[in-house]
Automatic annotation (TrEMBL):
PANTHER family: OSMOPROTECTANT IMPORT ATP-BINDING PROTEIN OSMV (PTHR43117:SF4). Coiled coil: none annotated. GO terms for molecular function: ATP binding; ATP hydrolysis activity. It comes from uncultured Thermomicrobiales bacterium. The lineage of its organism: Bacteria, Pseudomonadati, Thermomicrobiota, Thermomicrobia, Thermomicrobiales. Gene3D superfamilies: P-loop containing nucleotide triphosphate hydrolases. GO terms for biological process: quaternary ammonium group transport. Belongs to the ABC transporter superfamily. Keywords: ATP-binding, Nucleotide-binding, Transport. This is ABC transporter, ATP-binding protein (Cluster 13, osmolytes). Signal peptide: none annotated.
Length: 360
């Protein structure tokens, strides 16, 4: 990504820096659309700490979008309360609230008759930023989402690919440096490669600015990749809330197990570090610096799934595990990997982490 001096300066004086993330609390929040059916959202109580990346997952109609829309007051709850940094959202004027909260949806919602630059500038102009500051911010954001400003700022949305439009949607949501981002299946319509790339960009932006993000997806792999915490919803309720590893390895019930593919050995392996499965090196051996196998190595923080790939490609019977300073600290082989993936499988039925499964 191009780094322009102007952008760097604005970071130094604060114009380009987000103020970190907000705390969001839902207490007994319900939404009943009337009509006699069950509530779309039923007494949800959920705390999201500042700067956390929380992914909501659950079947169609379980209330994910409704929960997001109550957060920025596109819907009002029927009961309960939602606070942002301790202030009830209900007490904030909706326009001010929505400037503090960026909102990205699958159909980007870009204005088709407005150029990309003008689309991104909507909120800064509402905030009456002066022209130069708006123009600077637009270019800074286009840079941030990987679209060269000179090439893209004057185009219309229809002249961009779906993935590029999604980038603009993200840039627009970030325009006023929101402390919170609500993202409703933002990458749902994209091909796998574009999707993976945008996930990476979003992670980079989150690491840099530390917004609180609530992200809805139907894709458990996306959830596992992005989430600090996964919230599983069903019929308007939260049925499980925890870190990805916990949700995938100890699903609360059969429904969650099926939803998150808890019996998917490879998914579990992608969440476990090599260090959790290695045989520590014989201390005496390590201390005397005895000849170590010259074969392939893997770092202890790498995912077991990657280690397995390396192992299978290498045709060796084990890999040497090294620490961050490339010092050998242990070994790993198929047997140790199987032992760990099997142990992590409690709660899911019919798991048989044999080599043929792993190779599949
Ligand atoms: N504006 C509305 N008026 C009436 N009912 C609604 C409205 N919006 C949502 N609902 C209902 O509330 C429930 C939850 O809908 P919601 O859109 O929150 O689900 P979702 O989890 O986002 O589903 P999806 O994964 O399909 O997007 C559904 O039964 C839906 O029909
Ligand atoms: Mg939805």
């Amino acid at each position: 990504m191009a780094t322009r001096t102007g952008a760097a300066e604005s970071h130094a004086n604060g114009a380009g820096r987000a103020a970190g993330g907000s705390a969001i609390d839902y207490v007994g929040v319900s939404k009943d659309f009337g009509g006699g059916g069950r509530s779309a959202v039923s007494e949800i109580t959920l705390s999201v700490a500042p700067g956390r990346f929380v992914v909501l997952i659950g079947p169609s109609g379980c209330g994910k979008t409704t929960l997001l829309k109550m957060t920025n007051r596109l819907y009002e709850p029927t009961a309960g309360r939602i606070t942002i940094d301790g202030t009830e959202v209900h007490s904030l004027p909706a326009p001010a609230l929505r400037r503090q909260i960026g909102y990205v949806i699958q159909q980007t919602g870009l204005f088709p008759h407005m150029r990309i630059g003008d689309n991104i500038a909507v909120v800064p102009r509402l905030l009456r930023w002066d022209k130069a500051r708006v123009a600077h911010r637009v270019d800074e954001l286009l840079d941030l989402v990987g679209l060269p400003p000179a090439e893209y700022r004057h185009r219309f949305p229809a002249q961009l690919s779906g993935g590029q439009q999604q980038r603009v949607g993200l840039a627009r949501a970030l325009a006023a440096e929101p402390s919170t981002l609500l993202m409703d299946e933002p990458f749902g319509a994209l091909d796998a490669i574009t999707r993976t790339r945008l996930q990476g960009e979003l992670q980079r932006i989150h690491r840099r600015f530390g917004q609180t993000i609530i992200f809805v997806t139907h894709d458990i792999d996306e959830a596992v990749r992005l989430a600090d915490e996964i919230v599983v919803m069903r019929d308007g309720l939260v049925v499980q809330h925890g870190p990805p590893l916990e949700v995938v390895t100890t699903p609360a019930d059969a429904f969650v197990a099926e939803l998150v593919g808890a019996d998917d050995v490879l998914r579990r392996l992608s969440l476990l570090p090599v260090g959790s499965a290695m045989r520590p090196l014989d201390r005496a051996n390590g201390a005397t610096g005895a000849a170590l196998p010259a074969g392939p190595t893997v770092t202890r923080s790498a995912a077991l799934r990657d280690a397995l790939g390396t192992l299978l490609e290498s045709h060796e019977d084990h890999l040497t595990v090294v620490d961050e300073d490339a010092r050998p600290i242990g070994t790993i082989d198929l047997e140790t990997i199987q032992a760990v993936s099997g142990r992590a499988a409690t709660g899911a039925e019919g798991v048989s982490p044999h080599a043929d499964v792993l190779r599949a």
